[in-house]
Design a protein that fits this description.
Elements: E1 5-8, H1 19-27, E2 30-33, E3 37-41, H2 44-48, E4 59-62, H3 65-77, E5 87-90, H4 93-98, E6 109-112, H5 121-129, E7 134-140, H6 148-153, E8 156-167, E9 180-183, H7 186-195, E10 208-212, H8 214-222, E11 229-231, H9 239-251
Parallel strand pairs: 1-2, 1-9, 4-5, 4-7, 5-6, 7-8, 9-10, 10-11
Antiparallel strand pairs: 3-8
Helix pairs in contact: 1-9, 7-8
């Protein structure tokens, strides 16, 4: 399979030190960053329909920077003052540091995990130590569920949909001439098939597909598509590592 142009369905990295740029140079391929999905925040009016009172909570669980943005946005739009005593539990240090956009970091009670997963032992231990708090869990409309790790702790937490994922549709004059597509969520697969219903069907041009995460990989297979690259694995814990390995094997005839 000849790979010359790759679509990464994420926003373009803000730093020129991204491994994707090294891969493009190493393998002489063009990498285009073009999300298949985009995020829209719920309006204050829409959020109020959930009957969730933001002022009732003493702690917040964050699994993404997007959740941080929409939590503070909705607090402002709903005229809720976030108290200095609020505790923050983040699944990564990067998300925790992102809180500096909205709060004085060193003066707040902030904990974070190491792996980015709800099941992270350090993350869960921090929550368990504060089990008497009333937790708010901002999520997207496609993130509801998958909270077994929190359920086991038997804490008082409330998932709150604060933003939604929608298809970032292709325009009629936008070229779709990629040799490989990389996806990072099941919603990306839904958008692909919405935009290109015949993708992957017999007679269509062969395009390689990569997926990050078990849920995304399952969505690829459930759609009847061939999964060429999957991450994380023991050999390649990151998508960039898996992509590099795939391109190397493909160039040497190993694929």
């Amino acid at each position: 399979m000849k790979i010359k142009k790759i679509l990464v369905s994420q926003p373009k990295p803000t730093s020129d030190k991204s491994p994707y740029f090294d891969i493009a140079e190493k393998h002489n391929v063009e990498i285009v960053f073009r999300p298949f999905i985009r995020v829209e925040g719920l309006s204050a009016k829409e959020f109020r329909q959930s009957k969730i009172n933001l002022a009732d909570f003493t702690a917040v669980i964050f699994t993404a920077r997007t959740a941080v943005d929409h939590f503070f946005r909705l607090c402002e739009e709903c005229r809720v003052n976030v108290p200095d005593t609020m505790r923050y539990f983040c699944t990564t240090e990067q998300i925790a540091l992102y809180l500096q956009k909205y709060i004085v970091y060193r003066k707040r009670k902030i904990s974070y995990g190491l792996t980015g997963r709800l099941e992270d032992p350090q993350f869960l231990q921090a929550i368990q130590k504060n089990h008497k708090e009333k937790f708010l869990f901002p999520v997207s409309d496609v993130q509801v569920g998958g909270t077994q790790a929190l359920d086991v702790l038997k804490i008082d937490y409330t998932p709150a949909v604060m933003y939604r994922t929608v298809s970032n549709d292709f325009t009629e004059d936008e070229p779709f001439d990629y040799d490989m597509l990389l996806f990072f969520s099941p919603a990306g697969i839904d958008s692909l098939l919405k935009n290109f219903p015949d993708f992957g069907k017999e007679g269509e041009r062969e395009v390689a597909v990569g997926a990050l995460g078990a849920a995304t990989a399952k969505a690829v297979k459930d759609a009847g598509l061939r999964l060429d690259v999957e991450a994380p694995t023991k050999e390649n814990p990151s998508m960039t590592g898996a992509l590099d390995a795939f391109l190397t094997a493909n160039e040497t005839g190993g694929k």
